[in-house]
From TrEMBL:
The lineage of its organism: Bacteria, Pseudomonadati, Pseudomonadota, Alphaproteobacteria, Hyphomicrobiales. GO terms for molecular function: lyase activity. SUPFAM superfamilies: Glyoxalase/Bleomycin resistance protein/Dihydroxybiphenyl dioxygenase. Residues 11-136 form the VOC domain. This is Lactoylglutathione lyase. It comes from Bradyrhizobium guangdongense. Keywords: Lyase.
Length: 151
């Protein structure tokens, strides 16, 4: 009779984006103001402090190989994942979108009122990874840069 193992504590620690040109992506995320950590990795991989899970940038084909997935054909359409930059106000949403665009982001959707009482817009990074910039009811951003949800 086998003994059931205890369930591990679930956690999300790193979000890794596959990128075409790591120098361009490093420059973009540096320009957005994310704090790069563990710089000793050079251009092999870049890690950024986000106030929550780390954001990592890794060469697209190497990331695919590491996960034993084909790196081609590379999707040119929506990949089923978005990243979010939660804000404390509508003004902050507008400011973040304008800032990201000034650093080379591509506007996907202008900021607008949402059907759930929030305010959001979208930009894409140099590899087309979509970011939602949003303020939403019940979701607050604390001084610790972490998202706090209502119960």
């Amino acid at each position: 009779m086998s003994k059931e193992l205890p369930a591990p504590v679930p956690r999300l620690t790193v979000i890794t984006l596959g990128v075409s040109d790591i120098r361009t992506s490093i420059a973009f995320y540096d320009a957005l103001g994310f704090s790069r950590r563990l710089k000793a990795t050079g251009e092999a991989v870049a890690f950024y402090d986000t106030g929550g899970p780390l954001l990592a940038l890794f060469h697209w084909d190497q990331l695919a190989a590491d996960a034993r997935l084909p790196h081609k054909p590379r999707p040119t359409t929506f990949r089923g994942v978005t990243l979010a930059w939660n804000c404390a106000s509508r003004e902050e949403v507008d400011a973040v979108l304008m800032f990201a665009l000034s650093k080379g982001a591509i506007l996907l959707k202008s900021a607008h009122e949402t059907d759930y009482g929030g305010y959001s817009g979208y930009f894409a990074d140099p590899d087309g990874h979509p970011w939602e910039v949003v303020v939403a009811p019940g979701i607050e951003v604390g001084d610790d840069r972490r998202v706090h949800l209502a119960d």
